[in-house]
Amino acid sequence: MSNEELWYTIFAKGHPALVKQHQRHLRMPSPPRCKLCLVPFAGVGGFIMGFRGKRPSNRNPRFCSACDHFIRQFPGGAEVELSLVFADVRGSTTLAERVSASEFSRMMHRFYAAATAQLVATDGFIIDVVGDEVVGVYPPGFSGPRHAALAIEAAQRLLALDSAEWADMPFGVGVHTGVVHIGTVSGAEEGIQDVRAIGDNVNVAARLSSQAGPGEALVSDAAWTAAGAPDDGLERRTLALKGRTEPISVLVLTSGYHRAAAPA
Ligand SMILES: [Zn+2]
Which of 168, 254, 166, 241 is closest to 211 using CA atoms? Predict the structure, then answer.
């Protein structure tokens, strides 16, 4: 099997050995987990699995030593149709100017933790924090055939967070489904390897979240169709995305809070 076939099996279909590990590891607390095999690094599970040698890799601490070894041994990736969720804090630059650096950091970490929990709860994978964004990737090999429905559920759970508690930190959400390249990449730091989704459809998801208003989730038609969801008379918008010739059609989900406060 070529490396490409291997990664295709892992992300598009689900590798039987890895799927078994996921089922076993997800029964044990607590996150954070290895990004590939989902072995817990904290809590009782982390203690037990650490004892069995499944510890965070020294050179690549978001993976366990076994998975770090695996991604170095089989560099590469494959094109896979999957779903993506981006959640993006609105006006984080202004917020950073208004509060002290440590207060800003505390607020952002609170957002990362709350948003990440919703992605974890919906079987998202490769949950990353990039600047003021939290990103969740839902490959069928990890999240199952309902990946698009799960990504939309994640958006609904994110919107359900939007309340007075987050009055200072409104956020928008983007959901998209499409073919991306997913595989190993070498980081800027020597020896750091990672698994990431790259491609035009990743950019589309990122732009949807940046165009969503406070307390809104923009779900592309592609994601909605892949989820097989009825459109229930939801608001529809056509957006011109920066750098793209074709406009994209989206359905708009809203929270009760920031959206209700916004002028019509
Ligand atoms: Zn692992």
Answer: 241
> What distance in angstroms lies between residue 12's CA and the mean position of ligand 1's atoms?
18
pLDDT at 60: 84
Structure tokens, 216: 């809104």
Cα-to-centroid distance, 8 and ligand 1 (Å): 18
27 Cα to the center of ligand 1, angstroms: 15
**Cα dihedral value 42, 63, 39, 174, nearest 10:** 90
Domain boundaries, the chain: 3-75, 78-261
Cα-to-centroid distance, 69 and ligand 1 (Å): 9
Q: Kindly give the distance from the C-alpha atom of residue 74 to the centroid of ligand 1, in angstroms, as a whole number.
A: 14
| CATH H-level, domain 78-261: superfamily | Nucleotide cyclase, GGDEF domain (3.30.70.1230)
Beta bridge partners of 166: none
- Strand, coil or helix: 193: strand
What average pLDDT values come out for the chain (264 residues) when binned by 10 residues? 95 95 92 91 90 86 91 94 96 90 93 92 84 92 95 96 87 97 81 86 95 95 93 88 87 80 50
Q: What is the pLDDT of residue 103?
A: 94
The C-alpha atoms of residue 74 and residue 172 are separated, in whole angstroms, by 36
Q: How far does the centroid of ligand 1 lie from the alpha carbon of residue 52, in Å? A: 12
Q: Return the closest-CA partner of residue 224 out of 182, 165, 162, 177.
A: 177
Please say whether the beta carbons of 107 and 168 come within 8 A. yes
Q: How many angstroms separate the alpha carbon of residue 128 from the centre of ligand 1?
A: 16
